[in-house]
Amino acid sequence: MSVTSRYRESWEGFWREASGEPGAVFWDAEPALTVGPHLALFEPHLADPALPLVDLGCGNGTQTRYLADRFPRVLGADLSAAALDHARRADPAGQATYRQLDAAEKSETQALHAELGDTNVYLRGVLHQCEPDDRQALVDGIATLVGDRGRAFLVELSGAAKPVLMGLASGPSGPPPKLAPVFRHGIAPGEVPDDAVPEYLRAAGLTVLASGELPLSTTEYRPDGTRVELPSRWLVAGRTG
């Protein structure tokens, strides 16, 4: 199964329009507020920290570059070529490598696993932006990349995030500037029930090793100056047998 062309074009359009300025994208908060806290939860569960790490759905690579400072080999993978153009421009020293990947396409994840071997995988907010029919295929792809020794860290918006997003979108002047392009390009976050993510992982042959809740920082601020944070759930998964 591969993602639809409409979905792919939505992401291409979004990233072609996006500014290269730090913090211009709604979810592109600085690593100290995002991947940094996530790593503190992920690292204790890594069976082998020396494995290559794949930042799946890396976008413009802000979190990828942070990961590349902390792991020996990091690959940022994304569906969108325009996103990867941003990532490469922001990483002139080549701290990480970048690859276009449709992780819902079995042959593509199998080929990457054949190249890299087992990997650790970081995935932030990708499942809830997928087409519903692609979600299990995406998690199956994660399981392929993880193999026997890798671990996956997933962060997804929880059900409690929807009223926060809808409240932002329905303000008197419409969605705030950084959220508006998300809706305009047709990639508004979908709804993934909180209990569905562990089921996707189990169906892919992975065991949930740890889970919890954590606010997900954005780059948008409310009129009172407070940063918009979205309720999220995180999980660590891997094979244990």
Radius of gyration: 17 Å
Q: If you average the pLDDT, what whole number results?
A: 92
**What is the approximate shape?**
globular
Q: How would you classify the helix and strand content by structural class?
A: alpha/beta
Residue runs with pLDDT of under 50 for 5 or more positions: none
Give the end-to-end Cα distance, rounded to a whole number of Å.
27 Å
What is the tally of helical segments?
9
Q: Going across the major beta sheet, what is the strand order? A: 3-2-1-4-5-7-6
Strand content: 15-25%
Q: How does the major sheet shape up?
A: 7 strands, mixed
SSE order: HHEHEHEHEHEHHHEE
Total number of β-strand segments? Answer: 7
Give helix % range: 25-40%
Brief summary of the model shown:
By secondary structure, the chain is an alpha/beta fold. The protein has nine helices and seven strands.
Can you put this structure into words, describing what you see?
With 241 residues, the protein is of the alpha/beta class. 34% of the residues lie in helices and 22% in strands. It has a 7-stranded mixed β-sheet with strand order 3-2-1-4-5-7-6, with helices on both faces. α3 (62-68) links the parallel β1 (53-56) and β2. α1 (5-17) packs parallel to α4 and α5 packs parallel to α6. It is globular, with a radius of gyration of 17 Å. The model has no long low-confidence stretch (mean pLDDT 92).
